[in-house]
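Data deposition worksheet. Section B asks for the primary sequence of the deposited chain exactly as it was used as input, without tags or linkers unless they were present during the calculation. Section C holds the resulting structure in token form. Section D is free text for depositor observations; keep each observation to a single sentence. Incomplete worksheets are returned to the depositor.
Section A, Depositor: J.P.
Section B:
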Amino acid sequence: MTIENTTKHGMKSKSIKGRIHRKINLWLDTVEDKDLQKRLRDGVVVTGGSIASMLLGEEVNDFDVYLRNHDLAYDIAKYYVGKFSTKHAKGINTPLSVISEGGRIKIVVKSAGIASAEGTEKPYQYFEGQPDESATAYVGDVIIDPEQIADTYEEIENIVLSQEEKDTKYIPRFLTTNAITLSGKIQIVLRFYGEPDTIHENYDFVHCTNYWSSWDNSLILRQPALEALLSKELRYIGSKYPICSLVRLRKFITRGWRINAGQILKMAFQISELNLKDIKVLEDQLTGVDTAYFIQLVERLREKDPEKVDGAYLIEIIDRIF
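Section C:
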């Protein structure tokens, strides 16, 4: 039985745990720095869209990998930046570097803020939808009888990874300020790190808060996340980046998700507390959403006298760029 076959009707929790465990082990086996590899085996959190996709029988775009602490996130960034060959990158004429400012880890990339190896496909898309027909299988596998799922690896042992997946070299293919995308569908997120609950403080919608932890090979499925996935209902749990959440809404809605007015009002309240005329605040809030367009916006604002930046000017610049 292949992974593709098992995901057709949604994977059970033990199969998801097994797939993530094998996937992460395949990746870590390619980390040549043995000390770093050992630390990673005790410090990786997988959360976000990949688990939702597997529950719903959808194709996994990427496995979002987070690190358990600052030093581990910094060291893995240094490791892969060192491996990324700038001579093959598009538009990058100077070496990349990794910095840590105020606890925030960033890959410094010249100009556009993105380094992409030749042949790389478009950047990772977060989980944003599910087919309606997956609901029945999802209920049967996850919500109805979770206690009946045996804690054994019998089903997992029947999952045969494709030869292509086994042979993946997991090399850096795409770098941004906040993340490293490797071949083999691994995306290492640098912007946030910490224990799972700390990481999820930065998440906006509850359906992405299931997670797997490497140190105990544990898969945690949160009931609110499962309920939101089943109903395709966006439940906003608060975020440090509410503008990103608001922008992301359009993608969810086009895929059939629902959201009530109260959830949007929660975003509006959080946005009202931001000083968006402060370029640093605006740049921080826009990072990670429609990157190329928003970088143009921030660059235009940097060139302008702050005293002359008002609502009318912002509207004019936004209309020109978009």
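Section D:
The radius of gyration is 20 Å.
The beta strands are 44-47, 63-67, 97-101, 104-108, 114-116, 172-176, 179-182, 186-193, 211-213, 218-220.
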